[in-house]
Amino acid sequence: MVMTLHPRTYNDVFHVGHYFREGSAVLMDLTRLTEDDATPLVDFAAGLVIGRGGAMERVTAGVFLLLPPEEAARRARPASAAGR
């Protein structure tokens, strides 16, 4: 399941962390924020995924996909290994 969130302030990243730690992928849409407001949220997300062993992908400007460890590992496997 992918949770789509539109955080407006740094306090809203609590929800990003909650869903990510529960094992859900999180689509974090920061397109309505200024770059100055978005930067700390991206920094938080980067630390979260590194600390938990996940991955983060930039989907488009201001939109990031946070993948929990299981999903990140699945995507990192070559297609030939995935079918074993």
Question: Outline of this structure?
Answer:
The chain has helices spanning 13-21, 35-52, 69-76, 79-82, and strands spanning 2-5, 25-29, 55-60, 63-67.
Which key phrases capture this entry?
Translation Initiation Factor IF3
Describe the structure.
With 84 residues, the protein is α+β, with helices and mostly antiparallel strands. It has a single domain (2-82), classed as SepF-like protein (Translation Initiation Factor IF3, 2-Layer Sandwich). Helix content is 46%, strand content 24%. It is built from four helices and four strands. Strands 1-2-4-3 form a four-stranded mixed sheet. Strand 3 and strand 4 (63-67) form a beta hairpin. Helix 1 (13-21) packs parallel to helix 2 (35-52). The chain is globular. It starts with a strand and ends with a helix. The mean pLDDT is 92.
Shape: globular
Termini separation: 24 Å
Based on DSSP secondary structure assignment, what is the total number of beta strands?
A: 4
Question: At the third CATH level, what is the topology name?
Answer: Translation Initiation Factor IF3
What is the string of SSEs from the N terminus onward?
EHEHEEHH
As a percent range, the share of strand residues is 15-25%
* CATH architecture classification name: 2-Layer Sandwich
The overall pLDDT average reads 92
Summing up helix and strand content along with how strands pair, one would put the structural category as alpha+beta
Low-confidence stretches: none
- The CATH homologous superfamily name equals SepF-like protein
Into how many domains do the coordinates divide?
1
Rg over C-alpha atoms, rounded to the nearest angstrom: 13 Å
Helix content: 40-55%
What does the main sheet amount to? 4 strands, mixed
Strand order of the largest sheet: 1-2-4-3
CATH first level: Alpha Beta
Number of helices: 4
